[in-house]
Design a protein that fits this description.
The complex is a heterotrimer of chains A (110), B (142) and C (100). Chain B has 142 residues and is α/β, with parallel strands linked by helices. Helix content of chain B is 35%, strand content 18%. Chain B has one domain: 3-Layer(aba) Sandwich (Hypothetical Protein Ychn, Chain: A). In chain B, strands 4-3-2-1-5 form a five-stranded parallel beta sheet. Chain C is 32% helix and 20% strand. Chain C is built from four helices and five strands, in the order βαβαβαβαβ.
Chain lengths: 110, 142, 100
C-alpha cells in the first residue's frame, strides 16, 4: 500500500500512516488530507507543524492534553480546547493530524 | 449496561502507581514498555513514582546514540516524563503527583551522579524507597 | 505487599534488590528459577534467612519439584504453597511486585 506523490512511491500501513517518517513532504501531507476529507487551512498547518516539531524533539506524539495546552499558548484560549481541535480534525486530532504529519499512529488511549 | 460504564469511570479515582525500572535500555524491551505505561498513566491523571534502580539507572544517562545499531533513540522521551511531572506541579487543575526517583545505592554502584542524567531526579536510599513502596496501590516492575 | 522472584539469584540481582527495598511485614514468593534461592547451604541462604525476620517467605511447590529440590533441603521457616496458595497470597497481600 502506498501513496504516489510527485512521481514518488511512499509506503503506508493499512490505516494510511506512512512507514518511514523521513519520506514526509508537504505534497504528501496535502494528499493524505484529501483522503481524510480535510481542507487544509493555516490553522490545520499550525497543528501539523507543532506535531512534527514535538515528535522530532521527543520521539513520540504528544498527548492530547499537551497538544491542547500548546495550541492555547500559541493561538489563544479560545482555540486551546478539545472542541477546537475536533473542529479541525473531526475524526480525532491525534489520529488524523498525526497521519497528515507523517507520524506513526499514536499508541495508548488518546 | 450500567455496570460496565461504572467500571471504566476513572473520574475522581486516583491511585498510587510505582513504575520500577530495573533494566538497561537497549538489551530488552522492558524499558520502552514501562515508559509507554508511564505516559499512559498520565492520561488518566494517576499518581506516579517513576523509579530507576539497578541497571534501570542506565535508561536516563546522557548521550545515548543507538542509531548506529539502527535502533530508535527513546532517550528524549524521558523529557516528556519530566514535563508531565512539572505540569502536574504547576497546573492546579491536575490532581496527580509525580516523582522521579533514582535509588542511591544503584547509582553509586555504577559510578554515576545526578549530573549524568538527562532529567532531574530525586535520589532516595533503599530505606526511603522501601517506605515509598509501602504507600503504593500498584507496582509495575520491568 | 507480595514480592515474587522468578530468576535464580546466581543469574540476576533481583533477590538482592528485593531484599534491599521490600517494606517489612510483607511476603516473598519464590517461583520458577527463583526457587534455587530457597535451598540450604547456598551463597544466598544467609540473605534469605535474614529476610525471614521481616517477611513471610514462600516457595511454589511445583517449581521446586520440577527442579528436583526436596522439601527437606529448604531453609527453615520457608513455607511451600501450591498454585491455589499462590492465589491466596495475592489476595491476602494485595499489591504485587514481580522482580523480573
Amino acid at each position: 500500500m502506498s501513496y504516489e506523490v510527485n512521481g514518488k512511491t511512499i509506503e503506508h500501513d493499512e490505516e494510511g500512516y506512512i512507514t518511514n517518517i523521513n519520506e514526509w513532504e508537504l505534497d504528501l501531507a496535502r494528499a493524505i488530507a484529501v483522503d481524510e476529507g480535510i481542507d487544509m487551512t493555516d490553522e490545520h498547518w499550525e497543528v501539523v507543524n507543532f506535531l512534527r516539531e514535538y515528535y522530532s524533539e521527543y520521539q513520540i506524539a504528544p498527548a492530547v492534553r499537551v497538544l491542547v495546552k500548546a495550541i492555547k499558548k500559541k493561538l489563544g484560549a479560545d482555540k486551546g480546547s478539545n472542541k477546537y481541535l475536533y473542529e479541525l480534525f473531526p475524526y480525532g486530532p491525534a489520529k488524523q493530524a498525526c497521519k497528515i504529519a507523517g507520524l506513526p499512529k499514536p499508541t495508548g488511549c488518546i | 449496561m450500567e455496570d460496565t460504564e461504572t467500571m471504566f469511570d476513572t473520574e475522581g479515582v486516583t491511585k498510587n502507581f510505582m513504575f520500577l525500572n530495573r533494566k538497561a535500555p537497549y538489551g530488552t524491551i522492558y524499558a520502552q514498555e514501562v515508559l509507554e505505561l508511564v505516559l499512559i498513566s498520565a492520561a488518566f491523571e494517576q499518581n506516579a513514582a517513576i523509579v530507576f534502580m539497578d541497571d534501570g539507572v542506565y535508561q536516563i544517562v546522557k548521550g545515548h546514540d543507538p542509531s548506529v545499531s539502527g535502533m530508535k533513540n527513546f532517550s528524549p522521551t524521558y523529557k516528556v516524563v519530566e514535563m508531565e511531572k512539572e505540569d502536574a506541579e504547576e497546573d492546579e487543575d491536575i490532581d496527580m503527583v509525580w516523582k522521579i526517583i533514582v535509588e542511591k545505592e544503584s547509582m553509586e554502584a555504577r559510578g554515576l551522579s545526578t549530573d549524568d542524567f538527562i532529567i532531574n531526579v530525586e535520589v532516595l536510599g533503599s530505606q526511603e524507597l522501601s517506605a515509598l513502596m509501602a504507600e503504593q496501590d500498584v507496582v509495575f516492575g520491568g | 505487599m507480595l514480592h515474587t522472584i522468578n530468576k535464580s539469584p546466581f543469574d540476576r540481582n533481583s533477590l538482592a534488590s528485593c531484599l534491599r527495598t521490600a517494606p517489612d511485614g510483607g511476603a516473598i514468593l519464590f517461583i520458577e528459577d527463583g526457587v534455587y534461592a530457597t535451598a540450604k547451604g547456598t551463597t544466598f541462604s544467609g540473605d534469605v534467612e535474614g529476610a525471614l525476620k521481616n517477611q513471610k517467605v514462600f516457595v511454589l511447590g511445583p517449581d521446586l519439584a520440577a527442579r528436583g529440590i526436596a522439601e527437606d533441603k529448604l531453609i527453615d521457616g520457608i513455607s511451600v504453597v501450591d498454585y491455589s496458595g499462590f492465589v491466596d497470597l495475592v489476595e491476602e497481600f494485595g499489591t504485587v511486585q514481580s522482580w523480573l
